[in-house]
Structures are given as structure tokens and as C-alpha cells.
Amino acid sequence: MSKSYEIQGIIHSIGITTEYGSSGFTKREFSILLNDSDENPDYPNHVLFELIKDKCLLMDTRKKGDEIKVVFNIGGRLWQADGKPERCFNALRAWKIEKLGSASNVPEPIECADEGDLPF
User: Fold this and answer.
1) How far apart are CA 19 and CA 21, in angstroms?
2) In a domain, 107, yes or no
3) Residue 114 and residue 80: Cα distance in Å, rounded?
4) Does residue 113 lie in a domain region?
5) Residue 67: its pLDDT value, please?
6) Bridge partner residues of 26 (DSSP)
7) CATH number of the structural domain spanning residue 56
8) How far apart, in whole angstroms, are the C-alpha atoms of residue 64 and residue 7?
9) Smallest Cα–Cα separation from 13: which of 47, 38, 41?
10) Does the pLDDT at position 41 exceed 80?
């Protein structure tokens, strides 16, 4: 089992779920803009993630602009075409997404009057 990592950012784009082959394998990509305090705003850092199989559903309740925390694993594989140099492909495979900053979506509390202010 590979090590898990986590990162925070703002959703920049959400792709559609795409099915590959006859086996029903599905994949969905999304990108985030990193918003950590260590990030240099003059050089925005966008990162692409992928979701596979049942994890594609994780983005159904998200939208562009949401601030999220992504938990992911790093994967990679080698590939070589006939007569071509070997290439290495990397993937950031997300498996958990948490919405952050949800306090702004919580309704303001209703203030109650003092008992002395009640008309009865």
C-alpha cells in the first residue's frame, strides 16, 4: 500500500466521468489551485488529480470555487512503444475529498429576546 498525502486548494475545474473499454473502468479528472500560505500568488500552482471507479462520485457534490482538502496517493507506471525511449507516467489518485470553509454556508444564528422583552 502506498503512502497517502493531503493538500488544500480551491477547485479550478471538474471534468466529466469517462468510461474506458468494455470493462466499465471509469475515470474523472479535476484540478485545484493551491492556496497554502507558502504559495507565491505571482506564480499560481494548479494541480491535476484523478478519481477512478466509484470515487468519481466524490465530485458530484462539489463545484468550481469550493475550497477542499484532497487526500491522495501517488502512482506511476512505465511505458515503452516499439523503438521509442521508455517513459514514466505519474498520477495523483484522489480517494477522499473534504469541503473546507463551510462555516460561510451555515445560516446565521437567530437571536432570542430576553424573557423580559416577551409580550406575554
Assistant:
1) 7
2) no
3) 75
4) no
5) 96
6) 19
7) 2.40.50.140
8) 17
9) 47
10) yes
